[in-house]
Amino acid sequence: MKEIKPTCDPNGVYSVKRTCAELGISNKTLRKYRLNGYIQPLNPNNTYRPKYSGQSIIECWNILTTL
């Protein structure tokens, strides 16, 4: 995980690949974070192509840096 806060737009919509790049994690780690409730996709019913908001990426980073 990156030690620098993500610089993504809070109002933006990001793919799994871009979300992983912003957080500095792998796809499997992002899936674990989603299952543990640290981050939620914008479209929870679409499990094949989840999209994440920039705000949820920043909030996830804030939660994980305090653990």
Walkthrough of the structure:
With 67 residues, this protein is mostly helical. The chain has one domain (13-66). Helices cover 46% and strands 6% of the residues. It has three helices and two strands, in the order βααβα. Strands 1-2 form a two-stranded antiparallel ribbon. The longest helix is centred in the C-terminal third of the chain and has 13 residues, at 54-66. The chain is globular.
Give the structure's gist in a few sentences:
With 67 residues, this protein is mainly alpha-helical. It has one domain.
Global mean pLDDT: 95
Number of helices: 3
The number of domains is: 1
The helical percent reads 40-55%
Short key terms for the protein model shown above:
globular, two-stranded antiparallel sheet, mainly alpha, 67 residues, 2 strands
List the helices and strands and how they pair.
Blueprint: E1 13-14, H1 16-23, H2 27-36, E2 52-53, H3 54-66
Antiparallel strand pairs: 1-2
